[in-house]
Structure formats: C-alpha cells, structure tokens
Specification:
- It is built from 3 helices and 12 strands.
- The chain has about 170 residues and is mostly beta strands.
- Strands 3-2-6-9-10-5-4 form a 7-stranded antiparallel beta sheet. A 3-stranded antiparallel beta sheet has the order 1-11-12, with no helix packed on it.
- It starts with 12 loop residues before the first helix and ends in a 6-residue tail after the last strand.
- The model has no long low-confidence stretch (mean pLDDT about 90).
Length: about 170
C-alpha cells in the first residue's frame, strides 16, 4: 500500500521542485501540440499539456510554455497559435513534437485555416487562436488566446498524461 507524501514547501529548492512535479503529475491532463509560425514562415510546434478553457464569452483558452522553450520567440511574435488536442493513436506525434534539433513536422500533413498557422488533422479538437493576452508566471509564459475557429471529433480515445507518462483512457460509447 502506498503512502501519501506531505511536504511543507520551502525545505529546499530541488526537493520542492521534485515534490511539486510529483504532486502535479497526479492530475491527469490531455496532450496537445501547439503550433504557430516563425517570422520566416517556418512551422513551429511543441507538445504541451498545460491547456485549458478560460471563457465561453468571449471564447478564450490558455496555454503555458516554459520560458526556456525554443518555440517561445515565435509564439511571442506570431500573435496567433493553434492547439491540437491529440487522440491516443497520435502518441507518436506527441513524442515527435518534444524532440530537439529536428523538423518536428517531418512526415506530417497539415492544414491551413484562417490565421495561417499549421493545423494537425485527425485530432480530437483543434482551436485556432489569436493571442489575446500574454504574461509571465514563474518559469512559464501564459498565452491566452481568443478562439477564432475550431473543429472537434469526440469519437476518439483521448491521449492523456499522468505521472510522467502518456496513458490511455477507455471511453465508453454512449
């Protein structure tokens, strides 16, 4: 039987960070690929699990990106981005968009919608956004986007992330 861990934060930066990561890892999240365009028109993308709805009126969603991310500059200057919610069968796509020093779009088809950012096909949902508000929070930058177009197809098993690993969730058909 496992034992719960209780930690008073402030005991040590490295100790606190590991404990916080482990605790946050207990919250199951969906897996997305965030896409945008570089100033040179190059496709930019990264895997992210920090995504949530903010508001229905106006339609707002947010993503959080590590300040050390190589995609940060493009997200800052583009003013637009897309969030592509991955189904379980696209775990390889999620892994591809984590790799460093490679063309993350290699072998993938993309679509172009209203803002010109790359949209990944066959996702559970796609949200095309115009940047509405940006602010730094600790070691991440928060991008709040106004959703200008969306597509969804809930008839897939979602890809989720839990305790540092990709997982699958069985969804019963209604």
């Amino acid at each position: 039987m496992s034992q719960a861990v209780t930690i008073e934060l402030g005991e040590g930066a490295e100790h606190d960070a590991r404990a916080l990561r482990n605790a946050f890892g207990c919250f199951t999240t969906g897996v997305t690929v965030v896409t945008t365009l570089g100033e040179d028109g190059r496709k930019i993308g990264l895997t992210a699990n920090s995504f949530t709805s903010v508001s229905l009126d106006p339609p707002l969603a947010l993503i959080c990106v590590d300040l050390k991310s190589s995609s940060l500059a493009a997200l800052d200057t583009a003013g637009v981005f897309a969030v592509n919610v991955l189904p379980a069968e696209q775990q390889d796509v999620a892994s591809q968009f984590v790799r460093k020093g490679v063309d993350r779009f290699a072998g993938l088809e993309t679509e172009v919608w209203r803002t010109g950012v790359p949209i990944l096909p066959d996702c559970m949902a796609n949200f095309e956004c115009q940047t509405h508000h940006v602010f730094d929070a600790g070691d991440h930058r928060v991008y709040v986007g106004r959703v200008v177009k969306l597509r969804y197809d809930p008839d897939h098993e979602p890809l989720v992330y839990l305790q540092g690993r990709f997982r699958r969730v069985h969804v019963d058909a209604e």
